[in-house]
Write a structure and sequence with these properties.
The protein is about 40% helix and about 5% strand. The chain is mainly alpha-helical. Strand 3 and strand 4 form a beta hairpin. The N terminus is likely disordered.
Length: about 525
């Protein structure tokens, strides 16, 4: 952990960020005053520049893309589905799909000049572009080193770009020549859909070619596995318009499941999300974010979701920001271990048992979406858990391969049969019987089963269930039937751009339809 903690200190220093002097036994380097005469001069300096590109995607509350709170994409995206809901405020608006270009807590993911902690993630794409150009110019680096560093940066850029593209549609991407002349005002239009997909795809293909293998990669850093997982997500995103993408998905999924990558399903689902269940020894993990309670990457999910009167399993109360829905809870089969941490009953501080029959003011919307196991050290760690957030893992690949096999052009009976074996492998791990082929007699039935398994397996991990529903034209239907919102419509499949993006575009940037 010492090495990874130093990674973030260097990144924070580069960005002129928080003081992290509480991280012990480290020698942080102050790169806050960078100029061509003193930086970079060594490969260590270059490594710190590469590390700065990880800064955007960590789990910090302040400005981490995968923050385990309302400021992270997982919560925001899962709130638009039956997985999460909320009683009031901005999060309820997101849950109800009642958002607008002025909903700053949502549009801040694109970019903002009103947030005290973050300027959004569009600018982080530009940062990666600038760092790439700088590294390419350093003649003291070998071609091999340049490729390796560029692969990490391009994986970061691909990850951020895909995430924003999925949320907002095609982005405004600043080319290098614009970034090198910041004093010259040059409004830019959004890329076309085809240009956007090509931009992300090229980054991820390069990253998959030059990143280390999963076995070689340091835990928490990018690997070929993550780059390929992101390619899968990109291709799935495009599959409604072009089913041939499923052929690419099948190829990559089989590669990730091959012995050469070294991934294996864990025997115990719940243990993965408990203390000690992460780390390099967990071969199901494709990418997780190592936490350090003294630095700027943490997991504060327990405090985020536990009720304000919680007093159970040695845990203190939390801020009770979101609930799951009883609809989601009831969709699980009785013996499904994956609902273990959808907590439907707990002891309150006054000794009462709060449950569905006696919800008080805490469980009326649904159970506690705890996701992670109980961590009694949270209170002593300032509300932060030592459990690493897992963002992508192999179970996702199993379900993805099943989808590709069943829905690809020319899918055969053998393909469909194999698809169900992969779904049943995931179900069996959850303690459930397999689904027989005779129960899946239509494509519609398969999609129903697939979406249910994806939501049950991957809830509150990366927020991609929203994209799954959109892919099968189920997003609006679920919002209307599950949450009863009057604000659901096809346009809500994309979030609105902030007004500042429209204004800065000087007529070149168009708002998403319906806003």
């Amino acid at each position: 952990m010492k090495k990874y903690c130093k990674l973030f200190i260097l990144a924070a220093a580069l960005m002129g960020g928080l003081s992290l002097n509480s991280c012990i036994d480290l020698d942080p380097i102050d790169y806050s005053d960078i100029n061509p005469s003193n930086f970079p001069q060594t490969e260590t300096d270059v490594e710190s520049m590469v590390n700065s590109c990880y800064y955007s995607v960590r789990s910090s509350w302040f400005d981490g893309l995968f923050s385990t709170s309302e400021r992270g994409v997982t919560v925001v995206n899962d709130l638009t589905t039956e997985i999460l809901t909320c009683k009031s405020g901005f999060l309820k608006d997101v849950s109800d799909l009642n958002f607008f270009p002025t909903t700053a807590d949502l549009t801040r993911f694109y970019y903002t000049d009103t947030d005290a902690y973050s300027d959004g993630w569009l600018n982080d794409i530009s940062r990666c572009t600038s760092v790439l150009a700088q590294i390419e110019a350093y003649d003291f680096l070998s071609t091999e080193k340049k490729q390796r560093y560029a692969a990490e940066i391009r994986c970061a850029r691909g990850l951020i770009s895909y995430t924003l593209y999925d949320m907002f549609g095609p982005l405004v991407i600043a080319p290098l020549e614009v970034l090198e002349n910041p004093t010259v005002e040059k409004p830019l239009a959004r890329l076309s859909k085809e240009e956007m997909v090509k931009f992300i795809e090229e980054d991820l293909i390069f990253a998959a070619s030059y990143l280390p293998t999963p076995a070689e990669a340091e835990y928490g850093r990018f690997s070929q596995g993550l780059a390929n997982m992101l390619l899968i997500r990109l291709y799935l995103h495009e599959s409604p318009d072009d089913k041939s993408y499923y052929t690419k998905v099948e190829t990559i999924a089989r590669e990730l499941m091959s012995s050469s990558y070294g991934y294996r399903l864990s025997a115990d689902y719940t243990k993965m999300f408990e203390i000690g269940g992460q780390g390099k020894s967990n071969t199901e993990i494709i990418w997780a974010i190592p936490v350090n309670t003294e630095a700027v990457s943490w997991n504060d999910w327990h405090m985020f979701v536990l009720p304000t009167d919680f007093a159970d399993h040695g845990m203190a109360s939390g801020y009770e920001c979101v609930n799951s829905t009883w609809y989601f809870y009831d969709s699980f089969e009785e013996n499904d271990v994956r609902k273990t941490y959808l907590v439907a009953s707990y002891q309150a501080q006054n000794g009462d048992i709060v449950d569905r029959e006696n919800p008080s003011s805490h469980l009326e919307l649904g159970p506690i979406p705890l996701k992670y196991g109980y961590d009694t050290n949270v209170t002593g760690n300032g509300g932060k858990s030592s459990i690493d957030p897992i963002i992508y893992r192999l179970a996702d690949v199993y379900l993805t391969l099943a989808e590709a096999l069943y829905l690809k052009p020319g899918s055969s009976a053998a393909d469909k049969e194999e698809a169900m074996t992969h779904i049943n492998t995931i179900r069996n791990r959850a303690g459930l019987d397999g689904i027989s082929n005779s129960e899946v007699n239509t494509e519609e039935k398969f999609v129903e089963i697939l979406l249910k398994e994806r939501s049950h397996e991957l809830w509150c991990e990366n927020g991609q269930y929203r994209a799954d529903l959109i892919r099968f034209n189920k997003f609006v239907e679920h919002a209307e039937t599950v949450k009863g919102t009057a604000y659901a419509n096809k346009n809500k499949e994309l979030y609105p751009l902030p007004l500042s993006a429209i204004n800065d575009g000087k007529g070149l940037v168009t708002q998403n339809p319906g806003y």
